[in-house]
Amino acid sequence: MFLKNAWYVAAWSDEIVNELQQVKVLGEKICMFRNSDDEVIAMEDACPHRKLPLSKGRIKGDNVECGYHGLTFDCAGQCVWAPGGGRIPSAARVRPYPVHEKYGLIWIWMGNAAIADVEDIIDIPNFDSPDWGINRGAAMELNCNYLLMCDNLLDPTHVAWVHQSSFAAPATKDTPLRVTKTDAGIIVHRWMMDHEPAPFYKKVVEFEGNCDRLQHYEVRYPSHALIRAVFTPAGTGGVDGTLHKNTFVMDSYNFMTPTTENETRYYWFQLRNIRPDDAELSAMMSKDVRDAFEEDRAVLDQVQIGMQEKTSPHIDLGIDAGQLRFRRQLEAMIAEEAMVDAKMSQ
Question: How far apart (Å, rounded) are the C-alpha atoms in residues 306 and 85?
């Protein structure tokens, strides 16, 4: 169902404080908090005695105390105290999860902790560059399987109908798509030449007249997306073009974390190459992007229902090529991981 040997976003950094809270990732309940050194700790959210969630207990120094009988666990998940005296049972432990804080996000590794490598977390160029501005919004709860949002982020065509007041332009309906497979995922992309900028971008580009526009939709395994929008004056873009000094670039990063089979937590932010310190521009972009993503949510929540309750087969179109390739490869990766796990457990 899920690829476990991968990094997923568990929370925004500012969501995790020195209080116990439950976070769901891949259908698993996790207790998270910050210790006295401000480090993020993540462990199985179930006391091994009677399975009360540890998030219903309390922090004792840097340990977690169960709220039922006081069993106390250190940050590695080992029980260090149990009531009644005598030896602490060897099974009195909970699973700890590797976590890492980067890009203002808390990343968690849900699979084999022995192979967790923080170098495998997605690289985000320009994140700390003073020349690039950033805007973000709160995480969104989607009532759909995470792969439906992955599909959406490999689908430049849908903007012509779902985002008519923001990202759509006439060329987004029928300009041919190109699909490229990489080691990390799938890219669906196209240049659309000499047309009016879409409504959202018209408010931010720093040139007049028509544009050449790149739609670069990329999803990397298991569920991390980069949507790159490039707007440059007409005649300066394209595969062989030389971008103009006023070219506008927006890199939208999107992280889909499955919480259950049919629910997803969606994290996002945008980096832009103009006016990095313009707080008003950042606020406007955050609001407008959030509004567009709400349009996606309204559609995908209904698609989830439609796919669950369908009474006839659904069909695929030519524009679905990137999505289908992504799903096939991810399914193969999940199957291979399951086979390795089965061999190791024998």
Answer: 56
Query: Does residue 174 have a pLDDT over 90?
Result: no
Q: In this structure, which amino acid lies at residue 199? A: P
The tens digit of pLDDT for each residue in 198-241 reads 999 999 999 999 999 999 999 999 999 999 999 999 999 998 88
Q: What count of Cα atoms within 13 Å lies in the side-chain half-sphere of residue 70?
A: 5
Give the C-alpha separation, 231 to 210, whole Å: 9
Residue 16: helix, strand or coil by DSSP?
coil
Alpha-carbon torsion, ordered 48, 52, 55, 60, to 10 deg = -70
pTM (global) more than 0.90: yes
Instruction: Compute the C-alpha angle 54/60/65, nearest 5°.
Output: 30
d(CA 6, CA 332): 15
pLDDT in tens, 266-301: 999 999 999 999 999 999 999 999 999 999 999 999
Helix (H, G, I), strand (E, B) or coil at 304: helix
> How far is 286 from 306, CA to CA, in rounded Å?
30
Domains and CATH numbers, the chain: 7-119 (2.102.10.10), 126-332 (3.90.380.10)
Cβ–Cβ contacts within 10 Å for residue 111, how many? Answer: 18
